[in-house]
Design goal:
This protein is an alpha/beta fold. The protein folds into 2 domains: 5-165, Rossmann fold; 180-274, ProC C-terminal domain-like fold, CATH 1.10.3730.10. The protein has helices spanning 14-25, 42-50, 79-89, 107-114, 145-156, 169-178, 180-197, 202-222, 227-234, 240-248, 254-274, and strands spanning 5-10, 31-36, 54-56, 69-72, 97-100, 119-124, 133-139, 159-163. The protein has an 8-stranded mixed beta sheet, with helices on both faces.
Amino acid sequence: MKALQKLLILGSGKMGGSLLKGLTSNNELNFDISVVEPNLIKDNYNLISANKIKHYQSINDLKETDFDTVLFAVKPQVISEVCSGVLENLDQKKIFSIISILAGTKVETFESYFGLSPIIRAMPNLAVSEGSGVTALYGNNNVNKAFKETTDKIFSGVGEVIWVDNEDMMDVVTSTSGSGPAYYFFLTECLSLIAEDMGLSKENADKLSRQVAIGSSDIMKSSNDSLSSLREKVTSKGGTTEAALKVLMSPDKEFYNIFKKAIREAYKRSKDLSN
C-alpha cells in the first residue's frame, strides 16, 4: 500500500479551520494530517478529534519531522517566528513543499527562509468550509508537476481552483474573491433590512433575503449563461425589477462606482500588506 502524503498544517484559525473542515469532509482527499495550533476553538477541536488528526500545541512538540508538505495558515504578523520554528524542528535534509494561505505575504518571503523549496501561494475564501469556495494559486519556479497536482487536489476538493501566472494578480484575487463573501453577506443584509423597514417581520425578512441569495447562487452555478443574461431573464419590460435596476444602473453609475471604490480600497490594502 502506498504511504499517505504527510501534511503539516500550521494554524487553525478561521481560514485554516475552514480548509481543515473541507479537507476532512472530502472522501477523495487522503492525507496523514498533523495540526499545530495553541488555541483551538471548540469546532476545530471536535473536527480534529473526530478525524483522528494529530494535534500539537507548539511546533516544538512535533514527534515527526519528515513532512511532505507544510501548509502555513498563521497570521502574517508571526510568519518570521513560525518559519524559524519550522527550520529548527523539521528535517532539513528533506526538501518539503510549502503552501501558504497568508494574505499579503509574497512567495519571496518564504524563499528567504527555505531556499529551493517548491512554494505555492494560495488565496482561498471562506466558502471552502462548505466545499464551495474558490482558490487562486500561484507557484514559484521550483514547483513541479506533481506538487502542482497535489495542491490542485487539495483545493479543488473544497471548491473551484484558478491558477495565475503573475503574483501581482493575487492582490486582485484577495480584494474580489478573498473578501468577496463579505460583500455578498452585506448586500443580503441590506436586502433584509430594507424588507423589514418596508413592513416584513425581522424573521421573514431574514429568511427571504437568505434564500434569494442561495437560490440565485444555485442558478449561477447550474447555468452557462453570462451574468448579464441571467439578470436580463429576471427583468421584464416595464416590470418591478426593471424599475429597481434603473436606479442601480443609472447613467452616472453611482452604485457601480461605489462598489468599485470599495474593492479598490481592499486591493490597495492587500498591496500595502504585501510590501
